[in-house]
Fold:
Amino acid sequence: MKDFLGHRIRLFGSFSGIFSLVGMITLLALMPLLSTGALAAAPKVTVNYGGSSWLGHLPIMVAIERGMFREAGFDVTFNSMASYERMTGIAGGRLDITQTGVSSVIGSMAQNFQNFVVVGTCDQVFGFEGMVAKADFPTIESLRGKRIGVQPNSSAEITTFLLLKDHGLRYGKDVEIINMNASDSIASLARGSVDAATAWEPYLSQLQDLPNTVLLGRETDTEPFKKYGLQISGNLIVLRKEFVEQNPANATKFLKVMLDAAKWVTANRAKAVRLAIQRGYVKQTFEKLLPLAERFSYITDPNKMISEDLFDVLDVQISVYDELGKIPTHVDPRPWFRQDLLPRE
Structure:
């Protein structure tokens, strides 16, 4: 700073005395501002994002680690948590944006919570969830009166309900449902605490790896999937309503970066997976994770994030929860969707 100031003094010294004095006074007045950072770049927008090791969050991981959010003016923190915790985080103001399972979003809608908005879905993955049974039960019909391990309020619950219904069995009536975390289903099936279990990857593969087991069906075998061709119980992108209302343009810009990152991931899956592993977002090996990542279809066109088929699929899940008595009313999800926030090319 001394050399800088000396240079400026010498420069201004070549002018008349009054201009030299004005220049020196001006520069001296600016020095405190320069030293305190008042002339620095505008502060970045802080965003708390809720996610997990689920590969649907891979574009967010990439956008953080490759500096894409930083370049767009965001300071993003990735908070790893269970799906049901994310809607609680949105409601409590601890999260600004998340991708979370449809189940928890429907629950909040059914209670008429107005503290969030939805902007659609950002990925589709097929055949990622299924029901595995002991070899003694080679068909879904043979599970009548048997025990099925299912994580409650999850996509596995919907898949189980639909697979049973398609084969003439009633959830919780013709079979006994044992509530458990998907991660616990492998040990439970192995020791015989349950006769079958439904889970998503990577737990589905681990169930299939158990000796003397058989895969009875996947979510792609359900009638709604055959009709709509969409993931029956995927993730939705949820934003805290107050965050949106403070600056809708920031919400749109965040989504634009997210879609750009999804394009990069689609073109560089191996690099994306290595980056996620190196930065500690996921704990699996590259050899196991890459084949899973290659099965994801990331949506990169904002016009495909919301569709009538998506609403029809949501209605299927809402109907299931309504039949199971898990929600107080058959809710219409449309009022929560904000298509106007989606970026446009």
Summary: The chain has three domains: 2-35, 45-125+233-341, 129-228. The two ends are 45 Å apart (CA to CA). The CA atoms of residues 169 and 195 lie 15 Å apart.
